[in-house]
Request: fold
Amino acid sequence: MHVFVTGGTGLIGSAVVAELLGNGHTVLALARSDASARAAEEAGAEPLRGGLADLDVIRAGVARADGVIHLAFANDFSSPEAVANAVAEESAALATIGEELVGSDRPFVACSGTPYAPGRPSTEADPAAVEGPVGGRGRAVTAVLGLASRGVRSSAVRLPRTVHNQGTGGFAGLLTNIARQSGVSGYAGDGEQRWPAVHALDAAVLFRLALEQAPAGTAWHAVADEGDKVRDIAAVIGRRLGLPVQSVPPETYGPLGQIFATDQPASSAHTRQALGWEPKHPSLLEDLENIQP
Reply:
């Protein structure tokens, strides 16, 4: 299958591209810079110059592909306005991809986040979050799944709060960066809240399986660790960096403060049973041992 991939040179995307190429697919990768284009070429993919805002380029990429995997996101959480702009840009790109695929029966795999389910781990049957700081992403992906009724084999791989590799990535990576800047390895509240996690190489396998197998309109959970206590995550970070570990106000984390303070474990039992996905790489707490002081 010739696959158009957005975000193909990031932490997750580079793993997805390698997984696709290693399993007989070819890749056309959206590349917003010369550096990204070089990285795509070095990985064995064909670069297509442009970003998420370049909708004509995205249409051209979809037209050349047998299937699409969407991973790109601005990842600017510096202010509520920056988050809103990133969500709006992504939503427009998703809508554009979907319209180009209507009636083709081609696969379209979008990335999303695991939802919040009060008092229990969320499951694949729970709806995406459509409110809150990044609720727009949930609404956009829900629309992607709705394309199932319009001749698109659409699916969503829901990523946990931390997708990691070599001790970096996701919410845990943000905690590490903030700890380096502030001199404290912090956690919001009492630190008992739980975050799910997955190694990027394991997540990449699920994206491939969804592309190849997922029925239209389905959601899947790329969750290896159902929920690590944030206090335990901060403790490893603090030990690796030689910093004190303590509670800090949720406001420390800016627009994501509310999310950082929420208990949000997630299950992947259905995904493992239905798609035969089985994580094999190190857990988050094991991988954080790779953090360099």
About this structure: The longest strand covers residues 107-113. The chain has a mean pLDDT of 95. The chain is about 40% helix and 20% strand.
